[in-house]
Amino acid sequence: xxxxxxxxxxxxxxxxxxxxxxxxxxxxxxxxxxxxxxxxxxxxxxxxxxxxxxxxxxxxxxxxxxxxxxxxxxxxxx
Length: 78
Prior knowledge:
87% helix
């Protein structure tokens, strides 16, 4: 039972670390001036005019687009 709990915790820890790495990637992109226009458009739509909220939501939408691109590439490779 303890092994099952440990595996469960390890899986979620790995997911959190992967999420942190994606956030860091998006922040680095922003520092370099790269903005994904589609992710920004989605963030602005969701924020309904709140530009501060749009900046925060941009990270979420950019991460989703990165993940989707990775999954699409994996599917295409098979």
